[in-house]
Structures are given as C-alpha cells and as structure tokens.
Design goal:
By secondary structure, the chain is α+β, with helices and mostly antiparallel strands. Among the domains are: 2-122, Immunoglobulin-like (Sandwich); 265-329, no CATH class; 338-504, Glutaredoxin, CATH 3.40.30. 43% of the residues lie in helices and 17% in strands. The protein has helices at 115-139, 146-174, 179-187, 205-215, 233-244, 249-261, 268-282, 290-301, 312-325, 345-350, 359-368, 370-376, 398-416, 432-442, 458-461, 486-504, and strands at 23-30, 37-43, 46-53, 60-65, 72-77, 83-89, 95-101, 110-111, 338-341, 378-379, 387-393, 421-427, 447-450, 469-473, 479-482. The strands form three sheets. The chain has a seven-stranded mixed beta sheet with strand order 10-9-13-12-11-14-15, with helices on one face. It has a four-stranded mixed beta sheet with strand order 4-1-7-8. Strands 3-2-5-6 form a four-stranded antiparallel beta sheet. The relative contact order is 0.07.
Length: 505
C-alpha cells in the first residue's frame, strides 16, 4: 500500500538569498500549546532550521524577515520537534497566512493567501482520507479465514490505489506548470499502459522496464533549484541509481553525465548532485564501482567543475585519491612489484637496507647497489600463471592470522584440481626474522616476498590501508578481482576458467 501513503519526510536547502523584499508567514494555530515553534525546510536528503518563533501566544505564530526565502517545501515544527504540516514557498509567495486546529490538523488546514497551498492541502486531505479508509478495512476482516482476509485486503488496496492514482493524475493535469504540480510529479511513478505480450504470452518485462526508465524523469526540471528543496527528489535520485539503472560502472557513469548535463554550472542543483555522487561512489561497497568515483574525478574535478563545491585542498586530496585508484581499476594491468624473497634477505641486509632510517638513505643504497640488486629482485610481472593471487598481509595482523591459513588451504585445493595458480604473498612490514619464523611454522609454500629495499611504496601503489588485501589477476596480470575475502577466491577463479574456455572456442 505504499502508493497511497504520502511520505512527506526530510529534505531542505541552506539556500542563497533572493531579492531583498522580505517574507512574512502568519499561522493561526488553534489549541496549540507550544510557546516556541520552528520553521524548517527540506534540502536533498536532509532538513534544516530556517527560523524560530520564540513567542507563540494563543497559537498565533509569525515568521518574518527582510530577505526572501528560497523556493521550496517548508514545514512547521513543534517545540518537541514533531512535524506539523508542510507548505510551499516560491518567488511570488513570500507573504503567507495559514490556519489549522490541533483537534484535527489536516482537516482544518487552510491558506487564505495562496491557492497553490490550499490546493496542496486538498491533496493532503484526500490522501489522508484514503489512508484512514484503508485502515478501516482491517477491522472488517475479523472472522474471515487467512486466505479470505488477504484476498479482501488486496482487493481493497487495489481499488484504493486506483482511486489515488486517478486523483493524482487529475491533480497533476490541473497543476501543470506550478511548483505544487512539479512536487507531486516527483512523487508519482511513470507506469506503462497497453503493455505488449512477450513470446511466452506474459507482459513484456523488457518493455515495462524500458518505458519506466525512459519516463522516470518526465516533467522534472533539473534547472530549478526548488526541486532540491522537496521531500521526494533525493529518494528519487537514490532509487534511480540503486534500482533502475543497470548496476555496472559504465552504465552509472553514463547516467551521472546525462543528469549533470541537465543542470547549470554553479547552481545549487549542480552542486548538490555532484556533492552526492562523489562520496557515494567513493565509499561504494560493490567491487569495481571505484571506476565511477574515478570517472567523476576525471570528468568534474580535473576540469574545474567542482570549484565552489569543495575547497582547493579537498579537491586536491580527491584528485590524489583518484591517482591511486585509477591504476587499480578492474581490467587494468596490475602495477609491477620488485620484491625480495627470504633467500635474498641476507644480501640486502649486508647492503644496509635493514637499518636505513630515511627514504633518501634507502634511495642512495639502491643506486649504489643497483647492479647486485637486479639479480636479487623477484618481479611479479615475470611470474607465469593462469591464475595469480596477490595477497598483502602482516604477521601481527589479527585478521591475517585467520585468513592466511584459509588462503593456504584454498591454494592447495586449487593445486589438487590441477589449476595453474600461483600466490604472490607480500609481507607489508620489515621485521624479517618474525616474518621468516611465521613462514616456516605455517608452511607457507607459495612465493613469499617483502619490500626489502623500500622502493615499491606498496601501501600507496596497491591502496593498502588495512590487511589482508587480496587481488586476483589473470594470465596477463590484469586485475579480475580485488579486496575480496579468501572464500571468494575459488569462485573468482572458477569464473575466470569459464572465460578462458569461452575465448578458446
């Protein structure tokens, strides 16, 4: 029954000031016990305080100021932080008068100065009446069997949904070109009619999806900052990118660019959308979605389009983060590593690498001993394997002590299955004796290496901010998976095997 519920939730705007003509909002609130009330407003997925009336006498509330309020949906808040009711403010409606009564707040809502708000209150009253009507149906199911009760509620719900849908369509048609119409349009779903049948005789699901996606943003003006300050816009954006757009990075990149192109540089809409997309895809939990974050950086940050949204220092930090992630995107050739194994430790120790204190000192040692070092290096890029597991870990890491033995078991299982797999096990610290002891005691019979000469900068090169970190590479050292759990290694390799066989065909 979600469709008949009016979800007037959070969203507001900090907003810039308009022409200095001023605003005045008067509310006659009968039977109101508050002595203080607040005026709040929606902006994307948050809400903010706009003004406070500190002297409420007999329910008479006044918000007054020299500046215009930004266009948007505002709401009245009690001294106990309960939301009373929503109303609209636009460029032409800055002097408003409302009245209501706590005995029946919705039924008594009126505006004597704004037809648009009065029409909106009519809408609210209709939706509220349908919610009450639906609640009443439940009492009529007493004595029915469970199946009859469900059938009854479903039928009544369907009838109410149809009634609400027809009302909304009529309301929208009557209010096209108005702000209240734009807001109700955001709430309404765009559903296909006259759906053709697929070859199996059922409604064509692809047609339904294509229609829904194509018409999802019908009637939404991305150049109107007022749309940001509504209860529905943020949820609609999130639903679109989480549920409607195909969930792969390339599709999401296309849709972000399409949406951003509908906005104007420097507007609140432009700024808030970019400020939403950037952290959302920086912290995305789905593997490979860092490609979206890198795309945002390349398209909007490096081109100067993020100026005014973030300060220069933040922009610089975000661009540096992009520099780290870009070489590690799925499908990229993994950056090479020149490492030292346990057999080579003695030689590099004698050169002084175990005791060197500074990066400058390590650099000098490196060039002084380059000829000998070349023979000691194990280059990751030269190791041949159909399946290449790259793991970064630390002897003292508690999680590593659990995961490394599991990975070792997975490795042996893959070898038994005659998979051409190698594990390049990178110790991220430099306490050699502790490292060597762990290898021996746990019988780590794979390629054990560490950054013995301090030249790889592995923490930045492979974005190692915690351990263990596991990458899976193909025979060409292209990244197929990253930052995965040990339990996923087998499945990733199985999928790679299918891909290899498909290529051979």
């Amino acid at each position: 029954m979600k469709k008949i519920l009016l979800n007037i939730a959070l969203c507001s705007i900090l907003g810039s000031l308009n022409a200095q003509t001023g605003h005045e909002i008067k509310i006659n609130f009968k039977n109101c016990k508050d002595t203080v009330v607040y005026l709040a407003y929606y902006q994307f997925d948050k809400s903010y305080l706009s003004d406070t009336c500190k002297k409420v006498v007999k329910g008479n509330i006044v918000f007054k100021g020299k500046n215009n309020l930004d266009k948007g949906v505002y709401y009245l808040v009690s001294q106990d932080k309960a939301r009373y009711f929503d109303f609209f403010i636009d460029e032409q409606s800055q002097k408003l008068q409302f009245s209501t009564d706590t005995l029946d707040l919705v039924k008594n809502l009126k505006s004597s100065t704004s037809k648009e708000n009065d029409d909106f209150f009519t809408y609210i009253k209709f939706i509220t009446s349908k919610n009450i009507e639906f609640s009443g149906f439940r009492s009529k199911t007493q004595g029915m069997s469970k199946s009859d009760s469900i059938a009854f509620i479903n039928q009544k719900g369907k009838e109410l949904n149809e009634s609400v849908s027809n009302f909304e369509k009529s309301f929208l048609e009557q209010h096209k070109g108005t702000f209240v119409g734009d807001v109700i349009n955001l709430k309404m779903e765009k559903e296909a009619k006259d759906i053709p049948k697929a070859s199996n005789g059922r409604p064509d699901s692809m047609y339904i999806y294509t229609y829904y996606k194509t018409h999802y943003w019908d009637g939404v003006n991305f150049q109107d900052d007022g749309i940001l300050r509504t209860p529905f816009f943020a949820d609609r954006v999130k639903k679109y990118f989480n549920s409607v757009v195909v969930q792969n990075p390339d599709s999401i990149n296309v849709e972000i660019d399409r949406m951003m192109s509908k906005t104007k540089q420097g507007t609140k809409m432009n700024m808030f959308l970019l400020a939403y997309f950037t952290p959302t895809y920086e912290s995305a939990k789905v593997m490979g979605f860092d490609k979206v974050f890198v795309h945002i950086i390349d398209t909007y940050f490096r081109t100067g389009k993020a100026k005014g949204i973030y300060d220069d220092k933040t922009i610089d930090n975000i661009e540096k983060r992009g520099d780290i992630l870009k070489p590690l995107l799925l499908g990229s050739v993994a950056p090479d590593l020149l490492m030292i194994d346990t057999a080579g430790h003695g030689a590099v120790s004698k050169m002084g690498f175990d005791t060197v204190k500074t990066s400058a000192g390590a650099t000098k040692l490196y060039y002084d001993n380059l000829q000998n070092l070349t023979q000691k290096f194990i280059s990751m890029s030269t190791i041949k394997a159909d399946y290449f597991v790259l793991v970064f870990w630390d002897v003292d890491c508690g999680h590593c002590k659990t995961e490394i033995p599991k990975l070792l078991d997975e490795y042996h299982a893959l070898l038994k299955d005659k998979k051409d797999v190698k594990v390049f096990s990178v110790y991220t610290q430099h306490e050699y004796e502790k490292y060597r002891k762990y290898i021996i005691e746990n019988k780590l019979d794979w390629i054990n290496v560490y950054d013995g000469v301090h030249i790889n900068n592995i923490k930045e090169k492979y974005d190692i901010y915690s351990t263990p970190v596991i990458y899976v590479l193909d025979k060409n050292k292209r990244i197929k998976a990253k930052r995965i759990g040990t339990e996923q290694v087998k499945d990733i390799i199985a999928q790679m095997e299918i891909e290899y066989k498909a290529i051979k065909k």
